[in-house]
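Hmm, how's this folded?
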Amino acid sequence: MNQTEFRQMVQQHGYGEAQVTEYEPGLDNKMHTHDFSAMVLVLSGEFTLARESGAATFGPGECCEVEAGTVHAERTGPSGATVLVARK
């Protein structure tokens, strides 16, 4: 998926404007929740979304979604990750 397709998709699903976020190399956040839902498109690097049920790793062009209140953690590979994030 490219940035244009992602921006169209998040708009259709009621998300706000997507913003670029940079994650540092080797990031390993503690499990936490947010009071908002987020949709993420990986632009570069490796982004892992860990949930209580398991973890999935995403690369450039891949996207994932986290519903509000979901227990999760963000992790990155040795090069970090640059992502587009939209929230609702």
Summary: The first strand starts at residue 19 and ends at 23.
